[in-house]
Specification:
310 residues; alpha/beta; two-stranded antiparallel ribbon; 10 helices; globular
Amino acid sequence: MIDSRLTMLSMIQRHGTVTAAAHALRYSPSTVSHQVRQLSAELGVTLLEQHGRNVRLTPAAASLLGHVEAMSAEWESALADLGRFSETVSGTLGLCGFSTAAGLLLPPTMRALNAKFPHLHTQTIEAEPSECFDFLLSGDADIGIIVAAPDIPAGGDDRFSQHFLIDDPLDLMVPLDHPLADRDSVSIGDTVDETWILGRPGTTYHQLLMASCAAAGFKPRIGHFANDWNTGTALVSAGFGVCVASRLSRSQDLHPVRRIPLSGDNSPSRHVAAVTRAGADTRETVRFTLETLAEEAQRLMGRFEHDLTG
């Protein structure tokens, strides 16, 4: 019910350029520019001003978006209130999440939703954490599963509500004949002489490992870059180095390697959370989904920790 042009303006605020906002919304930049100019003319205020090669929001636009945030939260509250008067829960609930979550957490959650609300349609979109916020703002998704990272909105962003799910430790993956393979656990400092397989610079995976090694007092020797857990584990299995992998990932099931828990203060871990638009967590379907996601995440982590420790 929020004017789509306000969503465009909000996306420009989030991404900093019309082009990036248009890409996130799957419009052409000319369409977004035209729509925002039209909104500006109707309101009688300037919303965007040129700043070098880019544009920036005017004080009037910033003030307007403050009201948009309040209206969006009120609309979500209205939907929750109206749900009390409906005998049948229907419509579509959109979910999105990064690959591990999409593969492990979303299918059982959707099964639970379909059992609880048989007339509700569910849809999943696999998306990087930063993309999840775009899908939430555009209305293409109602709930996203994210990993905390520097390039996503902070927990204090009033447009969203974040709900902690689990801490997902990163375990060390080594070849089966590696000198550390018989250890029950290792510290990140034990890998000082290893050749590392890391995610590419700029990825959360890369940032987590570099920060952990720096805290342990060394800079890792990087031999290869692989963003995907399975690719990294395949390289480890072939003897090209060591890597870390999310405990939720099951990459060792595809490639013969030894997974070892990392211990100590510098052990890297991913913080996994579910995020909604502000106020949406009062809706019955969203609240049920958040509860189911939390239960499923805890169940999976408990099972995987048991498998790891025997």
